[in-house]
């Protein structure tokens, strides 16, 4: 991805170098499904995620150790995240304006080890996630090394950009009211039905990541050879079926909360090819 020398966002908080204690929450991020699979056989109900994100542990205290200086590598990572966030700000501001809407910019918080959020305390094990309570994306960038070593993704800078865009997609869903509507739809549903709605929400975030890629390429000409393959490899690695097969040796489709590898790749590419936010009704197509 061609990112150096371009505009960087001011909406990135870098808290790396600070240790924190506290309870881990299972967030709405890509790797959240892994924690659920480790703790509850067959996955977790999507109904549990939103209340946890919005209500748990807002009063918990965090203990931070002495802060160290960031390394040269960390500073470069920070610059990359700032650039990708700036691209997201530019694209989503344009899309919202085209639909007579106002886009409220979120923040990205980089952390290592643990972090306190508007949704409670979290550890790196939560993976990247979006907190609707404070409208921030939280990321420990060591996640991307695990994505390669543990789950077989090819890695690369655009794999990171895809994950960021996916989490920003959850922010878009919050602004549009989709997330709140989905939670209402989950009420009174069986576990399998509620999980299906959670899958639709996650696949729509993948679709929005594809829409962002379409617009960003058209506006800024950022893609390089292999970038789309990096995103698709990451999407494949975090499919529910791929994760379950690796962790527990078998697949339980009714427990899926994020979608299969093929679904995740399909919706990302649909967003990328169409560039049309109105073609992302994953809820209708998964009925």
UniProtKB/TrEMBL annotation:
It is found in: Membrane. It holds the Pfam family Zn_peptidase. The chain crosses the membrane at residues 21-41. Keywords: Membrane, Transmembrane, Transmembrane helix. It comes from the Bacteria. The keyword Hydrolase does not apply. InterPro entries: Uncharacterised_pept_Zn_put (IPR007343). It is a single-pass membrane protein. This is Neutral zinc metallopeptidase. It comes from Flavobacterium magnesitis.
């Amino acid at each position: 991805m061609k990112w150096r020398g371009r505009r960087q966002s001011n909406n990135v908080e870098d808290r790396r170098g600070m240790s924190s204690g506290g309870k881990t929450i299972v967030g709405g991020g890509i790797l959240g499904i892994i924690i659920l699979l480790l703790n509850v056989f067959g996955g977790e109900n999507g109904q549990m995620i939103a209340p946890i994100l919005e209500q748990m542990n807002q009063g918990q205290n965090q203990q931070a150790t002495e802060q160290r200086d960031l390394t040269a590598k960390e500073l470069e990572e920070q610059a990359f995240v700032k650039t990708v966030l700036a691209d997201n700000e530019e694209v989503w501001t344009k899309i919202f304006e085209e639909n007579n809407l106002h886009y409220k910019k979120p923040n990205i918080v980089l952390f290592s080890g643990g972090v306190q959020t508007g949704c409670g305390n979290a550890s790196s094990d939560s993976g990247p996630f979006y907190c609707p309570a404070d409208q921030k994306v939280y990321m420990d960038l060591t996640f991307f090394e695990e994505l390669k070593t543990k789950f077989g993704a090819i890695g690369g800078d655009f794999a990171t950009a895809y994950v960021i865009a996916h989490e920003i997609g959850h922010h878009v869903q919050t602004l549009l009211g989709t997330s709140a509507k989905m939670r209402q739809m989950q009420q009174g549903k069986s576990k399998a039905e509620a999980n299906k709605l959670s899958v639709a929400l996650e696949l729509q975030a993948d679709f929005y990541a594809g829409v962002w890629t379409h617009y960003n390429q058209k506006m800024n000409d950022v893609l390089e050879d292999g970038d789309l393959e990096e995103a698709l490899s990451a999407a494949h690695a975090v499919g529910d079926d791929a994760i379950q097969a690796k962790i527990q040796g078998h697949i339980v489709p009714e427990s899926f909360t994020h979608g299969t590898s093929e679904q995740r790749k399909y919706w990302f590419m649909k967003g990328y090819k169409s560039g049309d936010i109105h073609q992302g009704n994953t809820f209708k197509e998964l009925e």
